[in-house]
Amino acid sequence: MENILDREPLNKYDFTKMVNMWENLVFTAVADMIERNEMCSCQDCVLDTCALALNSLPTRYWILGCYDAFCPPEKFTEDVMNIRLAEEAVLKAYRLVQQNPHH
Ligand SMILES: [Zn+2]
Fold it and tell me: Dihedral, CA atoms, 94, 96, 99, 101, nearest 10 degrees?
């Protein structure tokens, strides 16, 4: 699949600065579960679980380097409530993946 970001005029912008704030928390929760042997660590299960979990959470994008004094990115990723929401989303997503694994 061709990367749309290679197309003019989009190729002059750095879209890697635009990140989904939930990714960090979801990936952390998945890594913890794999380390505790609580989930299958194959590529299919991990990516399916991440995608399902991220789809279930509200969309929250951030532009890196763009500092907002009222809501810095650390405040979001260190928020205990957000960490718990991400963990719950991953657990729920993995339960669905387990019912119909692609591996
Ligand atoms: Zn698997």
Answer: -60
Listed residue (94, 64, 60, 95) closest to 79, CA to CA: 60
Q: What share of the chain is helix, strand, coil (3-state, %, to 5)?
A: 60, 5, 35
Of 99, 73, 101, 83, nearest to 27 by C-alpha is: 83
Q: Ligand 1 centroid vs 42 CA: distance in angstroms? A: 4
pTM summary value: 0.87
Residues with CB under 5 A from ligand 1 (ion): 40, 42, 45, 103
Q: How far is the CA of 66 from the centre of ligand 1 (A)?
A: 38
The Cα–Cα gap between 22 and 57 comes to: 8
pLDDT tens-digit readout, 18-51: 889 999 999 999 999 999 999 999 999 999 999 9
Ligand 1 centre and the CA of 101: distance in Å?
Answer: 6
